[in-house]
Amino acid sequence: MGLGTRQPNNGGTKMSNDFVDDPPADRWLKTDDETRRWVETFDPMRKCLDMVRSDAAVECIDAIIAEGAYPYNRDARTRLCARLGIPFREEDENNSGTSWLVYYAQTYARSDRLKREGYSQLTEEMAREAIAKGAGIELTGHNFMGGEVNEVYRRIVDVPGHGLVLMRPRVRNRGIRCDHKRRGTDCPARIVS
After folding, report:
1. pTM of the predicted model, to two decimals?
2. β-strand 148-153 against 155-159: which pairing, if any?
3. 76/160: higher pLDDT
4. Which among 56, 55, 58, 34 is positioned nearest to 106, based on CA atoms?
5. Which of 49, 88, 109, 147 has a 20 to 30 A CA-CA distance from 71?
6. Residue 89 lies in a domain
7. Is 102 part of any domain?
């Protein structure tokens, strides 16, 4: 269910399984011209240690998903190269500027999609709001086969020493903690009626 997180990378951008903070202005390529210049000046020996967001790459991934297809990196890279007027070369598959931009764009595209659908990080405040409204909390994530999993939790229990915990019906243990800061989780969640 996307419960792990990674430490911030060298650029200081928080990266987790599901949500990514917006990068600083010097690492956010908002136009096709900025993206093209970045790709043309990319140094493959340096590697791309800092996350760089390219809106063009994110839009290519979103377009593939809108067509109902899975956004494989190769397909997104082919579209990005065509959009920028840059030749697509097989030999640059893993270490070109476009491959790095598409790799990071996958994370940004998922984060943007979740935010558009009304998801945010699971917190105790969200759980308290759901209790006050008499609503449940829907979590989303992926199973080990890559399929999307959505599950609604209507039982929210206050467990001493652990805070608020989402519980499945007729289950006494193994709930999901709402305080992601304590456990290091980053569950995409939203309140549902």
Report:
1. 0.76
2. unpaired
3. 76
4. 58
5. 49
6. yes
7. yes
Question: What does each C-alpha distance from 73 to 60, 61, 127 come to in angstroms?
Answer: 10, 9, 36
Q: Is residue 101 in some structural domain? A: yes
Same domain flag for 129 and 48: no
Structural domain includes residue 127:
yes
Contact 152, 138 (CB under 8 A): yes
Are 100 and 168 found together in one domain? Answer: no
Among 84, 115, 146, give the residue marking a domain's end: 115
Record the tokens describing residue 127, joined without a space.
């759980």
- Cβ distance 16 to 187 under 8 Å? no
Which residues, listed in sequence order, are joined to residue 137 by a DSSP beta bridge?
153, 191
- So what's the pLDDT on residue 8? 34
CA distance 188 to 97: 30
Nearest-angstrom CA–CA distance, 26 and 173: 46
Q: Which of 115, 143, 164 is the last residue of a domain?
A: 115
For residue 47, name the pLDDT band (cuts at 50, 70, 90).
low
Same domain, 30 and 91: yes
pLDDT, tens only, 94-109: 778 899 899 999 989 9
